[in-house]
Amino acid sequence: MPPLLSKSKYLHGLQCPKLLWYEYNRKADVPQAGPMMQNVFDEGRKVGALAHELFPGGIIVERDRSPQTTHSRSLLALKERQPLFEAGFVYKNAYALADILVPVEEDQWDLIEVKSSTSVKDDHLYDAAFQKYTYSGAGVKIRNCYIMYINKEYVKQGEIEPDKLFIRQNVTAEANERIKEIEAEIDSLQKVIAQKDIPDIKVGPQCGYPDGCPLIPLCWSFLPDEEHIFILYAGGQHRYDLMERGVLKVTDIPADYELDPKQTIQLKSHKSGKTHIDKRKIKGFLKTLKYPYYFLDFETIATPIPIFDGTSPYQAVPFQYSLFVIENEGAEPKHFGYLAPGDVDPRIEILKQLKELLGTGGSIIAYSAPFEIGCLRRSADYFTEYQEWFISIENRFVDLLLPFQKFFYYSPDQAGRASLKSVLPAITHSSYDGLEIAQGGLASSEYARVTFGKDIDPADKERVRHALELYCDQDTRGMIEILAVLKSSVAK
Ligand code: SF4
Question: Which of 41, 114, 130, 490 could potentially form a cystine with 51 if both were Cys, beta carbons 3.0 to 4.6 Å apart?
Answer without folding.
Answer: 114
